[in-house]
Write a structure and sequence with these properties.
- This protein is an all-alpha fold and about 425 residues long.
- About 75% of the residues lie in helices and about 0% in strands.
- The chain contains 14 helices and no strands.
- Helix 1 packs antiparallel against helix 2.
Length: about 425
């Protein structure tokens, strides 16, 4: 069937997305990231230290909890993306999942706030990952649904800016709330409020019931695999994103403990907030500019490559210059590199999607490249820190992994 005959929900977008739509989607995206990173940067580490049984290192507790959550994230993102592809609600394909995901996430935060054992903490975090990924899968799928190729770098830039503001907001809420439980409740409230403008003010295209793909367990499972032989550009783009995100996850996972145990900062939580703020300022200075610039020149690969190289240099500083000044410089450089990478790589990934009918599922599979590093990073980081050289080796490995990812972008053929 021709593109002109396709319903709006399945048509390739041709009209530019409006500023109001972009702003509302960006705020919703930032709210989801605040819900993730308030816990990941501050609250889970503090809670792990409080709840770790005698004789169990807090690092191991944190690694298990975040790793279990990441496994849930890895499965739930493509699952909910596939379900949203098949949703024929009068409110559209994506909006119902944003509403359900954020509401469920708020309930999961309440559970986390009251957790008094490690198993309850793990359950609460897994539920946060399950529910917020339902919302996130719908939010990311809205971009290829509504934004033409020539505008995706710019929109990706605004989403990236909202992402780092969400990380900074979540970290700030977790730090300023006055306790672990209050921090979780603050993150819950912000996630709900941040998604309301998009849900209430913007219409989501409706999928006609007769165009809904068949729903079966076999079809869902089969859809979780996209052959890299049939779609090699998507395969290389996915691997690039995975490795760069893995290097970044290795660098950030134990940041609170690094400041406390290696740099001996008197207020490590406040130090994390300062580094996050420095990182956020430099990221905001590059994320939108990088996306616009990529759209203007019509190229993606050079931006992804050099942003990865900059991030490699930054992570190398954490390995070789273990001072507060070194951490500040590393945070600034990571912001520069990750800002460009966030916007341009997002546009690159949407440019290599196979088909419009399952954008949500495909974006969910792409999002695994964000969540799988959260599983791999704890598994790699704990032995590196405890048995294979400490924090110097951890950050050296992170730098090497990120560099390999940056170089692999050159294998993509269909997007310059």
């Amino acid at each position: 069937m021709s593109g002109a005959a396709a319903p709006e929900a399945l048509a390739e977008p041709s009209e530019q997305a409006g500023r109001g739509w972009t702003a509302a989607l960006s705020v919703a995206n930032g709210a989801i990231w605040a819900g993730w990173y308030g816990p990941l940067q501050i609250l889970l580490a503090l809670q792990a230290a409080e709840l770790a049984p005698p004789g169990s290192p807090k690092e191991s507790v944190l690694a298990w909890v975040t790793g279990m959550g990441a496994v849930v994230s890895m499965v739930s993102s493509p699952l909910f993306g596939a379900l949203s592809d098949r949703t024929t609600s009068r409110f559209g394909r994506r909006t119902p999942w944003i509403v359900a995901g954020v509401a469920g996430g708020a309930g999961a935060f309440v559970l986390l706030a009251g957790a008094d054992t490690v198993p309850v903490m793990a359950l609460g975090w897994c539920l946060v990952q399950l529910t917020l990924n339902a919302a996130f899968a719908a939010i990311t799928a809205a971009v290829p649904d509504r934004v033409p190729h020539r505008q995706r770098g710019a929109v990706g830039g605004w989403l990236g800016a909202a992402q780092i503001l969400g990380v900074l907001t979540g970290t700030g809420l977790a730090t300023a709330a006055g306790g672990v439980a209050a921090g979780y409740l603050a993150c819950a409230g912000f996630a709900v409020l941040g998604t309301l403008p998009y849900v209430l003010l913007h219409r989501d295209p409706v999928l006609p019931a007769e165009r809904r793909p068949a729903l079966s367990g076999r079809a869902l499972l089969a859809g979780f695999w996209i052959s890299p032989r049939r779609h090699p550009d998507l395969g290389w783009a996915w691997l690039t994103r995975f490795l760069i995100n893995l290097g970044n996850a290795l660098a950030l996972l134990y940041l609170l403990y690094y400041l406390r145990d290696v740099l001996h900062r008197p207020d490590p939580g406040g130090g994390v907030l300062v580094l996050t703020a420095v990182n956020g300022v430099t990221l905001l200075g590059t994320v939108v500019v990088g996306g616009f610039w990529s759209d203007r020149v019509g190229r993606r690969q050079p931006f992804v490559l050099w942003s990865g190289v900059i991030m490699t240099v930054a992570t190398g500083l954490l390995a070789g210059w273990q001072t507060w000044a070194g951490a500040l410089c590393a945070a600034a450089l990571l912001g520069v590199g990750f800002g460009v990478f966030t916007s341009v790589d997002f546009a690159l990934m949407t440019d290599v999607l196979p088909a419009a009918a399952h954008r949500g599922k495909d974006m969910g599979i792409i999002n695994i490249a964000n969540s799988l590093p959260q599983v791999a990073a704890p598994a790699l980081a704990a032995p590196l820190v405890h048995h294979l050289g400490g924090y110097r080796m951890l950050y050296a490995v992170a730098a090497a992994v990120g560099l390999v990812g940056a170089l692999l972008v050159r294998r993509i053929r269909g997007v310059p």
